[in-house]
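One record is given unchanged without comment:
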Amino acid sequence: MTKKGKLEEIFSKAQYADDPFTYRIFYRDFDSLKELTLPDFLKESNNFETIPVTRIELIKKNNKILFKKSKL
């Protein structure tokens, strides 16, 4: 549940208080990782309808990692 809160916080800040084009979203697509800007990801995922939050592996702003899915 903590991860969902962290992701919601990042997405909210990016969309409403920052430049969303500086955010890069890396998500699982079968056996590969795809990379999109935040606006492109939201469009591609149809606001998380076709690509759920659980497939997000990494979020970067410029070169700083804001979120990285932990491997257990």
Observations:
- DSSP finds two helices and four strands in the chain.
- The helical segments are 2-16, 38-44.
- Residues 2-68 form one domain.
- The chain has one domain: 2-68.
